Q: What sequence folds into this?
């Protein structure tokens, strides 16, 4: 029987997902000031990256960080991004997400994943995640 140890990457990833999910859920339940901060902290993102991914202005994202509640459409977009990054954490280390977002990727015709998200083509990232998780790389 295999026991969870610090050296077991699968166990580490499961714990990270659980902590990330719990923290984001609690933050959303309490208020959105913490949720944006936790979102950025969990995935090592800047507010600038959140601005690009959500297509909201820098001022709007700053307002969320300082306590203003996102609109329902903004919260929906943030929840969708959180789900995407949770899935990515199963494939790569959360600390690698910022560099991965800014690295041109041949799977996206040389676009960066951030550019793909900015264009509203998040389904292409979900397809990539599915292919990597299932081993269906064709």
A:
């Amino acid at each position: 029987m295999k026991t969870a140890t610090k050296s077991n990457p699968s166990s580490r990833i499961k714990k990270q997902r659980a902590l990330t999910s719990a923290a984001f859920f609690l933050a959303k339940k309490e208020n959105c000031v913490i949720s944006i901060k936790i979102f950025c902290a969990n995935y090592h993102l800047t507010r600038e990256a959140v601005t690009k991914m959500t297509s909201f202005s820098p001022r709007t994202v700053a307002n969320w960080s300082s306590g203003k509640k996102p609109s329902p459409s903004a919260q929906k977009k943030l929840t969708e991004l959180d789900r995407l990054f949770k899935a990515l954490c199963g494939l790569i280390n959360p600390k690698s997400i910022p560099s991965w977002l800014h690295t041109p990727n041949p799977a996206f015709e040389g676009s960066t994943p951030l550019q793909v998200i900015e264009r509203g083509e998040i389904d292409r990232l979900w397809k990539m995640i599915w292919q990597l998780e299932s081993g269906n790389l064709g």
Observations:
- The chain has a mean pLDDT of 81.
- The radius of gyration is 16 Å.
- DSSP finds eight helices and no strands in the chain.
- The helical segments are 9-30, 32-43, 47-54, 58-65, 72-89, 97-101, 113-118, 122-134.
